[in-house]
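Reviewers asked in the last cycle whether our approach scales beyond single polypeptides. To address this, we selected a multi-component target totalling 300 residues and predicted its structure end to end. The input consisted of the following lines:
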Amino acid sequence: MILMFSVRPVKVLILSIALTAGCAVNETGLVSVRHFENSAVHMVNKEAWGVYLSTGETDGGLVFGHMKRSLFYLKPQSPMDLKLENLIKTFEQAALRESEKVNMDLLQNQSPIAWASANEGFIVNANAMRIGLILGLESQQAIRLPKDFDGAFRLSYSSNEKPLAGFYRTKLQKTVNE
Amino acid sequence: MRRFLYYGLIVIGLSGCNAKHLVYVHETSLGLDAAVSTEGTGRFVLGYDRDTYAIVPRKGAGLDAMTLTALGCIYASGLDNVSFNHFVASGLAAENIAQDDATLKQIKTAIQRGGDQCEPQQ
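The resulting structure, written as structure tokens, was:
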């Protein structure tokens, strides 16, 4: 009986925290989603507090706490000649601009080619990249290109500055995302 | 516990043969972190850890690794102040860039944010 009285306030407290902090699934619920793009790349920024469930292929998992991530997706692009003299200049000028014209469902079905994430709390990862759990803090910056990738990719990501991403495809590929 | 470790090693061993992606990763963790990766790495961390690694897959079974020209500059200060700069080219693009000294120098300068070394952002 004493045990029941001591456990009940704990349950109420956990439930209250979960309800007030909120929960979200992918782009639905209490999650901030912003979309940026340039001619070659989509970038989706997400941030959520509370309970966040993602079903994405490369970021699938569950976060209890805080999550912030930027996901970079390739746009369909025809192969083009690689002009070495303008390569870096072209990449540096490819600023990512905020845009609302995007079909999030289409992006959700693709695999991002790069991402940066920071999570705090209890995190369960169950995706194509890793399976495991974290209790504490973690951050990850990654590029993940298919092995039949033929082209050039440039990514500059910093927690303090606007990211920069560019892509050249030099040969038509069967699949961009596996 | 011993059985768990055996299973973990088997999973890591099997996945290491099957890398299907070219991967560049920088990751930091503080706390408890236990994971296996489908690209062939595994980790168990209790405390603080920071890893930077790349995985270059073979073109096919028994074939050479991918043809790559890649330059990277990663600067980290603290847990959340990270600058991750990468350029990677593969296939024909990699061959062309690797043979052009001027382009390589331009890429290196851009990756290092205009400096001679990989330096923090101002």
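The CA atoms of residues 32 and 46 of chain B lie 5 Å apart. We regard this as preliminary and will revisit it once experimental data from Aim 1 are available.
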